[in-house]
From TrEMBL:
Keywords: Aminoacyl-tRNA synthetase, ATP-binding, Ligase, Mitochondrion, Nucleotide-binding, Protein biosynthesis, Transit peptide. Its main location: mitochondrion. It is found in: Mitochondrion matrix. It comes from Dichomitus squalens. This is Phenylalanine--tRNA ligase, mitochondrial.
Length: 438
């Protein structure tokens, strides 16, 4: 009995040392990002492939599709103060706690977000800057930034993308009410003369309530102002775009939504080229945010929209990796201030390779697998699909099989080259996660 225990202990010890070696060999004591040093810890999961993207600021290039779209949104809200270039490293408090995310929200997990260490992360949304921007006393503001989320790999998901956030603050008094009423009248007049059909939901309902602190009339007026402002933005982005809607009205649909930092909350969808597309999330800002920013006696709305999805539609860009391409055949197609249709220069053949393995006891999250592939082969990976997952009935060991599609955006990949990168993926997989290849 004693002997048995001792043996069990020593094999456990062995496992721990093996894990420690793996962690130790892949995790330096500190890392440097944008000239700042961060001590690492067990939450550190940012990869080199991601760190390489930090600071590229694609949206600030006026001739890049993301930059063209950024300018279009900013000029629509021309009397809003526009912010760019905010550093992407924030605290989990800025990204989550200050906005009312519950402690067990899945977005906080290291499988979903990139951490430099437990106190510093890459923002997952531009809302992470709401408190500091409101705190500057700005009453109409826009903010564009790169945001980071760990995710699957396919044509429309990339771990770095771009968002714009916008907000407008009104005084919670007679003057504020007069201001919002005047602006609503102006916007209603503009929309009434435009070719737009709106499917609406009530501004406020039992399932999408106003806040206790808000005067009921003012809450309605501000929610209405949010909707009118964004309907007008949808017209700028999608309305009568060079015959795309062929004289048909633009259809916009409002849906009740939930965000921890707004109520009431909504999502906006637009019917474009035969499909309903989800465009943005928005709502009336939780009073807690304005309190934290020390903006008294006010009521505000805010929205956040993803630039890639809209740019893919407007410019007909088929693969999200293309935004990062420096190939002249991509970049030379776009001109500042113009929405044009991208002409694919070629399609290179897909090259599928499978990898099957037994999972380590601690398991392996799909996002960990995807980051390892991206970190090993960069943008040569087009998509990754889990094609098999089972537990062995006798041994209880779990097995996964992923199919990786290697395909360059810029050139044809030889089978030897695909084999070479795939071999490297397998080597890194064994090395980093201790899997057993089948
Ligand atoms: N930050 C939210 C997201 O990334 C969008 C949002 C912004 C919602 C502002 C409401 C208000 O999904």
């Amino acid at each position: 009995m004693t002997v048995g225990l001792a043996r069990a202990r020593s094999s456990l010890h062995f496992v721990r040392i093996a894990q420690y070696r793996r962690l130790y060999s892949t995790r330096p004591p500190s890392l440097t990002l944008l000239g700042k040093e961060y001590p690492t810890d067990s939450t550190t999961n940012i990869t080199d492939a991601i760190a390489d993207k930090v600071g590229r600021n694609l949206y600030t290039d006026p001739a890049h599709p993301l930059g063209i779209l950024h300018v279009l949104v900013s000029s629509h809200f021309h009397d809003f103060r526009s912010h760019v270039g905010l550093p992407p490293v924030v605290t989990p408090a800025q990204n989550f706690d200050d906005l009312g995310f519950p402690p067990d929200h899945p977005g906080r997990a290291p499988t979903d977000s990139y951490y430099l260490n437990r106190d510093a992360m890459l923002r997952t949304h531009t809302s992470a800057h709401e408190v500091e921007t409101f705190a500057r006393g700005e009453r109409r503001w826009l903010l564009a930034a790169d945001v980071y989320r760990r995710d699957e790999i396919d044509a429309s998901h990339y771990p770095v993308f771009h968002q714009m956030e916008g907000a407008r603050v009104f005084g919670a008094d007679e003057a504020g009410r007069a201001e919002v009423e005047a602006d609503n009248a102006r916007l209603e007049h503009h929309l009434a003369r435009s070719n737009i059909v709106i499917e609406d939901v009530p501004h406020i309902s039992a399932t999408n309530p106003r806040q206790e602190a808000h005067d009921p009339v003012m809450a309605e007026l501000v929610a209405k102002n949010l909707k009118l402002s964004l309907n007008s933005l949808m017209l700028t982005l999608f309305g009568d775009r060079g015959g795309v809607n062929e004289g048909e009205p633009l259809r916009v649909r409002w849906i009740e939504a939930f965000f921890p930092f707004t109520t009431p909350s909504y999502e906006v969808e637009v019917f474009f080229r035969g499909k309903w597309l989800e465009i943005l999330g928005c709502g009336v800002v939780q009073q807690r945010t304005l309190d934290r920013a020390r903006v008294p006696d006010s009521i505000s709305w805010a929205f956040g929209l993803g630039l890639e999805r809209i740019a893919m539609i407007l410019f007909s860009i088929p693969d999200i990796r293309l935004f990062w391409s420096q190939d002249p055949r991509f970049v030379s197609q776009f001109t500042a201030g113009q929405i044009s249709t991208f002409k694919p220069y070629s399609k290179y053949p897909a090259c599928y390779k499978d990898v099957s393995f037994w999972l380590p006891g601690s398991g392996l999250h799909d996002n960990d697998f995807c980051d390892l592939v991206r970190d090993t082969v960069g943008d040569l990976v087009q998509d990754v699909v889990l094609i098999d997952y089972f537990t062995h009935p006798k041994t209880n060991r779990r097995s996964k099989c992923y199919r990786i599609n290697y395909c360059s955006m810029d050139r044809s990949l030889s089978n030897e080259e695909a084999n070479a990168v795939h071999t490297q993926v397998i080597a890194n997989l064994k090395d980093k996660f201790g899997v057993e290849i089948r």
